[in-house]
Specification:
Strand content: 5-15%
Keywords: Lyase, Metal-binding
CATH topology: TIM Barrel
Organism: Arthrobacter ginkgonis
CATH architecture: Alpha-Beta Barrel
Strand order of the largest sheet: 7-6-5-4-3-2-1-8
Domain HpcH/HpaI aldolase/citrate lyase: 25-234
Radius of gyration: 19 Å
Order of helices and strands: EHEHEHEHEHHEHHHEHEH
Distance between the termini: 65 Å
Number of domains: 1
Largest sheet: 8 strands, parallel
Pfam family, one: HpcH_HpaI
Family: Belongs to the HpcH/HpaI aldolase family.
CATH class: Alpha Beta
Low-confidence stretches: none
Number of strands: 8
Shape: globular
Amino acid sequence: MKIHGETSRPSPLKAPSLDLVERGRRGVWIGLPEAASIELICAEGPDWIGIDGQHGQAELSDLLGMVDAANVFGVPAIVRVPGHDAGWAGRVIDSGAQGIIFPTVEDGETAARLVSACRFAPRGNRSYGPTRRSPRYAKTVPGVRADDPLAILMVETRTGYENLDAILAAEPDGIFIGPYDLSLSLGVDFDALLVSDPDGILRDVAQRCADAGVAAGIYTGSIDLSLGPIGWGYSFMPITSDYSLLSTATRGVLADFERAGVNA
């Protein structure tokens, strides 16, 4: 679909594809609004980055540069939007994000509306206007499923868990568990939930997602906390964050300095 006045020259760049099933276990969560730090991270080849537009510091105007910083290294970018506003989500998609995470989805009606916001008509109601992403990358083609951004819905409350079947019926591309809020909602210790899943809820979510053909993901933030979910069938998660990388690296360097016995 050609937009009047745009270039007819093809772009030499190819946007990376996002595979939540086969290449999802080495994600990095991004809270800082810094394209330069994303470049340093993505140069090392994570499976994807997740830009946190809900609790992180990135504003809408930051996203184009942040997504591009990942994509130039062939790393797909997912953006967690702050809420359920379709207009906000549309602008995130137009910035080039390969996936959208919508927080706190608790019923099938909301799930269907959010998935629809990521699909062009007749499958949804996403508005067509890729004027900024193009000509840097080839425009998305309405109706081509491979060009759709992945619609990922967060289940992070008891109500969302109880309505999981209705949420899955909306045919999202992924379900993403928010274990902090879910543990609070269930009255379960966070570490116990991720390490041992005492009530079998995380296992149940993963199995129901598998039965529906939907990728199951979860926020873990560390390798140790990822081991249980991987064994239960979760295929995508961030195993670290930019905050964690900076703090642990700094702590390690300072500890090394002390162990070296260097006089201040």
